[in-house]
Amino acid sequence: MGAVADAWTWLTTGANWQGESGVTARLVEHLWFSGVCLLVSCLIALPLALWLGHIGRGGALAVNVSNVGRAVPTLAVLVLLTLTPLGKQGDLPTIIALVLFAVPPLLTNAYVGMREVDRSVIEAARGMGMSGGQVFRRVELPLAYPLVLTGLRSATVQVIATATLAAIAGGGGLGRIITAGFNTSDTGQVVAGALVVGALALVVEGLLVLAGRLCDPMRATRRTRPAGPAAGAPGGAPAAPAKAAA
After folding, report:
1. Predicted TM-score (pTM) of this structure
2. Distance between CA 124 and CA 130 in Å, rounded?
3. pLDDT tens digits for 42-91?
C-alpha cells in the first residue's frame, strides 16, 4: 500500500500537473499521439476489411497476414525501427510500430463482421433490386457495425496503453512520467503514471461505447426487436432491407 499512497500523494500535488513535463501536457501529447496512430490504422484496415468482406475473397489471407503482427512484440519493432534511418524522423518509428499493432483487431473484426451478415438478408436485398453498393451501405455495413466497433474499441485501448513506449524512443506522452519515475527511483511516480494511463484507457473506452450506441444505424431496430428465439437469429434480420428500401 506504500506505493499506492505515494502515487496518490504524487497525483494530488498540483505542481506535478503543471508545466511542459506535467501530467496535463503529457496527457494532451498522449491523446494526440494515440489519435494519429488510430486514424492511420483505421484508414488502412477498415476500407480493406470492409471491401474484402463485401466481395468475399482474399479476406482470410489478409487477416492471417495482419495477425502475424500480433506475434511480434511492439517494443521489439520500435527498437528495430529506431536503429534504422527512420529513427531520425522523430515520432515516425513509434507511429509505425503502433499502427502495425492496431491494424490486426481492426481488420479482423471488420472482416468477420461483414462475413457474418446473414446471406439470406443479402439475397433478399438483391432480390429487391439493390445494387452492390446499396447492399453494402444499407445492409452489410449496419449489420456488421457492432463487430466493427468492437475492433475499434480494442485497438483504441491497446494503442493508448502501448503508446507509453513512445518515451523509450524519446517521444512524449504519459510514458515520460513513468520513465522519469524509473530514472529517479520514484515508485510513487511510476505507479501514478500507470494509473493515469489505465484511467485514460477506461474513460476513452466508455466514451466509445456510449458513442457507439448513439451512432448505431440499427439502434431503433435492435431496441424494438421482440424477445424470443427470433430476436438474435437471422430470421429477424430481413427487416433490415425493408427499412433500407424505405
Report:
1. 0.80
2. 9
3. 999 999 999 988 888 777 777 777 777 677 777 777 777 777 776 667 67
Q: Which single residue is written with the C-alpha cell 500523494? A: 9
pLDDT at position 205: 93
As a whole number of angstroms, the distance between CA 55 and CA 62 comes to 13
Amino acid at the residue 245: A
Q: How far is CA 85 from the centre of its chain?
A: 28
pLDDT digits (tens, 9 = 90+) for 214-242: 888 877 665 655 544 444 444 444 444 44
All three cell numbers of 238, joined, read 430481413
Three state DSSP letters for the chain: CHHHHHHHHHHCCHHHHCCCCCHHHHHHHHHHHHHHHHHHHHHHHHHHHHHHHHHCCCHHHHHHHHHHHHHCCHHHHHHHHHHCHHHHCCCHHHHHHHHHHHHHHHHHHHHHHHHCCCHHHHHHHHHCCCCHHHHHHHHHHHHHHHHHHHHHHHHHHHHHHHHHHHHHHCCCCCHHHHHHHHHCCCHHHHHHHHHHHHHHHHHHHHHHHHHHHHHCCCHHHHHHCCCCCCCCCHHHCCHHHHHHHC
Cell numbers linked to 170: 524519446
Going from the N-terminus, what domains does the chain have, and what CATH number goes with each? 2-220 (1.10.3720.10)
